[in-house]
TrEMBL record:
It comes from Phyllobacterium trifolii. Signal peptide: none annotated. Belongs to the class-III pyridoxal-phosphate-dependent aminotransferase family. It comes from the Bacteria. Its cofactor is pyridoxal 5'-phosphate. Keywords: Aminotransferase, Pyridoxal phosphate, Transferase. Its EC number is 2.6.1.19, 2.6.1.22. InterPro entries: 4NH2But_aminotransferase_bac, Aminotrans_3, Aminotrans_3_PPA_site, Class-III_PLP-dep_AT, PyrdxlP-dep_Trfase, PyrdxlP-dep_Trfase_major, PyrdxlP-dep_Trfase_small. It is an enzyme of class 2 (transferase). One of its GO terms (molecular function) is (S)-3-amino-2-methylpropionate transaminase activity. This is 4-aminobutyrate aminotransferase/(S)-3-amino-2-methylpropionate transaminase.
Length: 426
């Protein structure tokens, strides 16, 4: 056994002794360095990273602009807390994000996606003076108590963590593969209004334009448009959770832009700051200004280093045509996945929007019975071949692909070859 192998085994054993078992790690490897789409473990083995810190690294690992921006910022100011003194990167980033989302918007910065979601609900309740929130089955909105309450999956997120936050109601999310239509989902919403909570008591409806952890299900454009019409009619705040779909993942800067609607609030995190902890709520000014001074904030929210990194991320999108490259590589990956689907009957569905793609693994195409065990085997075999992937879906039977938008054509070909061999082995 090599010295690095000894070190890897020692660290894995130390991990088990010292870290709570509720913190899961998808792959039993330890990273030592990463660049772009590539990651190396302690043994020096190279992997293609199609997880990206779970969709955090749309500009890739250690992008030079992000690294340089953080280096420059840390030499001047690493942290001051914006609620104590202001600083230019926070203000400049707010200006840029507001312009990216629409006209007449304001921003507030936080640390994690769950924190952004929680604050979006606070803002909506403050603005409407109403208590209830409607979310979707299969949705994921974080691991905090309110985040878990909004999340539409029981395991592993809810476990025995209740009681959960009150006044949260869930309805079906459209799912073409499982036969849940726009009409059916809208009918369920009307039923909730009729039986559970009147619309004039609903503060917000929160929706992911493409469900992330729930299985990479894109919301139909007509469904998003219908929600916009319904929320306008009843004075309900429409929150677009763009934490995983934002920053080019779906082919537009934000997923809601495919539908052409104007959201009330947008939650942003993950790829916003190129790997640094950073999140935001961006919304219409009159809604964002509903909470009075002191009602929003957080010690690390809008940290100066994270703001500098986020500004570098936006500059990279502006200068390097990441949306264009992402669209080209998305078409290449989708074609490859469909080719694999035609060769393997257990690939029940290939779906997604833009470069947010997934394949659902089933035991039988006719019944569409989920096959979580085979899905895990696919992930293990892909890792053995040098490709890092993770799963999603309420039954954990969907393989998701979250490669950085800086990926090359050759790297997509390499990943498809590794995946093809993995599928043959399972």
């Amino acid at each position: 056994m090599t010295s690095t192998a000894h070190k890897t085994q020692d660290l894995l054993e130390r991990r088990d002794r010292n870290i709570a078992r509720g913190i899961a790690t998808a792959h039993p490897i330890l990273a030592s360095k990463a660049k772009g789409t590539e990651l190396w473990d302690l043994d020096g083995r190279r992997y293609l990273d199609f997880v990206g810190g779970i969709g955090v690294l749309n500009v890739g690992h250690n992008h030079p602009r992000v690294v340089d921006a953080v280096k420059r910022q840390i030499e001047n100011l690493s942290h001051a807390c914006f609620q104590v003194v202001g600083y230019e990167p926070y203000i400049e980033l707010a200006e840029k994000l507001n312009a990216l989302v629409g006209n007449g918007y304001k921003s507030a910065f936080f640390t994690s996606g769950a924190e952004a979601v929680e604050n979006s609900v606070k803002i909506a309740r403050s603005y409407t003076n109403r208590p209830a929130v409607i979310a979707f089955r299969g949705g994921f909105h974080g691991r905090t108590l309110l985040g878990v309450s909004l999340t539409g999956m029981s395991q592993p997120y809810k476990q025995n963590f209740g009681p959960f936050a009150p006044e949260i109601f869930h309805i079906p999310y459209p799912n073409a593969y499982r036969g849940v239509t726009t009409a059916a989902a809208l009918a369920a919403l009307e039923e909730v209004f009729a039986t559970d909570v009147a619309p004039d008591r609903v503060a917000a409806i929160i929706i992911e334009p493409v469900q992330g952890d729930g299985g990479f299900h894109p919301a139909p454009v007509d469904f998003i448009a219908a929600l916009r019409e319904i929320t306008n009619k009843h004075g309900i705040v429409l929150i677009l959770d763009e934490i995983q779909t934002g920053f080019g993942r779906t082919g537009e800067m934000f997923g809601f832009q495919h539908s052409g609607i104007e959201p009330d609030l947008v939650t942003i995190a993950k790829s916003l700051a190129g790997g640094l902890p950073m999140s935001a709520v961006v919304g219409k000014a009159e809604i964002m200004d509903a909470p009075t001074p002191g009602g929003l904030g957080g010690t690390y929210g809008g940290n100066a280093l994270a703001c500098a990194a986020a500004l570098a991320v936006i500059e990279t999108f502006e200068r390097d045509d990441l949306l264009g490259n992402g669209s080209q590589r998305a078409a290449q990956l989708r074609k490859g996945l469909i080719d694999l689907q035609q060769r393997h009957a257990f690939i029940g569905d290939v779906r997604g929007l833009g470069f947010m793609l997934a394949m659902e693994i089933v035991s039988d195409r006719a019944t569409k019975a989920p096959d979580a065990d085979r899905t895990q085997h696919v992930l293990d075999e892909a890792r053995n071949g040098g490709l890092l992937l993770i799963k999603c879906g309420i039954h954990r039977n969907t393989v998701r692909f979250l490669a950085p938008l800086v990926i090359t054509e050759a790297e997509i070909d390499e990943a498809l070859a590794v995946l093809g061999e993995a599928l043959e082995r399972v």
